[in-house]
Specification:
375 residues; alpha+beta; Pathogenesis-related Protein p14a; Immunoglobulin-like; 9-stranded mixed β-sheet; 5-stranded antiparallel β-sheet; elongated; disordered N terminus
Length: 375
């Protein structure tokens, strides 16, 4: 009976804490259904945690309340919750469970984000009715405090309890960069592949980034258990780490799958192209009813050249095309032209590549055009 009264009281407190900020809506009750796990990396500050403890006990002393003890289990839970609030800022955990499941000792929780120091966050909490009530609760004996900087912002958590499991020894904790495994439910805290569309070069690669929409913007995370899948490995392959590689010209969809049921959590389109190097016309010489073109050789990643010539400066009409199927050549003479006419010429490189079992021709951009009058 006593336990039921405590839970009811905490539920009301949780609502008050969320309502005071007015920015976050009360999360709907959901069943914990893990879609997967990710790794969140940040700077874990135990120094800040103990500074907050000192400030908490100063506030309690002002109203004649006994000091709270930093509990080892609650400290671990609060640090874990700080990582979790970076990806989903709520008293509901990213996997849909209540915050009290982080530790069986927890019977109250305060959270905050963006404050730059212990004094700053304590000022915010003490000026909020719900948070202040938790800090000055007469039924609490111990506390755990989380302070983690993720992507340039601090996330703060206080976990309260009426009991103490084991007091934490300050000398056993060191500040520094650290990672935490965070479980999530896609229906609660949706993960995304970022960006939603990208372009990579044939034979080269990139890495699919995973992000959550945090309170201050996107939060980058790394994969732990999720699965990647390509809709067309002949165009783009993807490995377990989300590393992409262009295998053929075209577009493929990269899907992020849940390891529990194979459902698609997010997807992104990847277009694979071949970035060919342009060439340029070095010299354009007019002869009797002919012109001779000399250009800069491009042997690397090039099978040959395509030349266009026209009497129209914008190549809108009367355009003719000549293909040079040898990347070692760098001259071509075009004959049977009209005397007295000015011809404009441009050139580009090409390469034949395999894509989806077919050979397609990929072109570079056109060179700058040059003009000459035929004799």
């Amino acid at each position: 009976m006593k336990q039921q009264n405590v839970v009811k009281k905490l539920t009301i407190l949780a609502v008050l804490v969320l309502a005071v900020f007015g920015t976050f809506l009360m999360a709907k009750p959901v069943r914990a259904a893990e879609s997967g796990q990710v790794t969140v990396t940040g700077y874990r500050s135990y120094s800040y945690a103990w500074q907050v403890l000192s400030l908490v006990n100063q506030e309690r002393a002002k109203v004649g309340l006994p000091a709270l003890t930093m509990d080892q289990e609650l400290l671990d839970a609060a640090m874990q919750r700080a990582y979790e609030t970076a990806v989903y800022y709520s008293h509901t955990r990213p996997d849909g469970r209540a915050c009290f499941t982080a530790s069986s000792l927890t019977v109250g929780e305060n959270i905050a984000a963006g404050q730059f120091s212990p004094a700053h966050v304590m000022n915010s909490w003490m000026n909020s009715e719900g948070h202040r009530a938790n800090i000055l609760d007469t039924g609490y004996a111990s506390i755990g405090i989380g302070a983690v900087e993720v992507d340039g912002r601090y996330y703060w958590v206080q976990c309260f309890s009426g009991a103490t499991s084991q007091e934490a020894d300050r000398g056993n904790y060191t500040d520094g960069n650290a990672s935490a495994a965070v479980s999530f439910d896609q229906n609660v805290a949706p993960i995304r592949i970022s960006p939603g569309s990208s372009t990579i070069n044939l034979g080269s690669g990139s890495t699919a980034s995973l992000t959550f929409s945090g309170v201050f913007g996107t939060i980058p995370v790394t994969n732990r258990t999720l699965l990647f899948q390509s809709s067309n490995p002949a165009v783009c392959t993807v490995d377990a780490g989300g590393n992409l590689r262009g295998a053929g010209i075209g577009t493929a969809t990269i899907r992020l799958l849940s390891p529990t049921d194979g459902s698609v959590l997010s997807s992104a389109n990847v277009t694979v192209t071949l970035d060919l190097k342009e060439t340029s016309i070095k010299k354009l010489t007019a002869g009797k009813k002919k012109i001779t073109i000399k250009w800069k050789k491009q042997k690397k990643n090039t099978d040959g050249y395509e030349i266009q010539y026209s009497t129209n400066k914008k190549f809108k009409k009367a355009v003719k095309t000549v293909t040079v199927k040898n990347n070692k050549k760098n001259t071509k003479t075009i004959k049977k032209l009209k005397r007295g006419k000015k011809y404009y010429v441009r050139i580009r490189t090409y390469k034949d590549v395999s894509s989806n079992g077919q050979t397609i021709r990929v072109y570079s951009d056109w060179s700058k055009k040059k003009g000459v009058k035929v004799r």
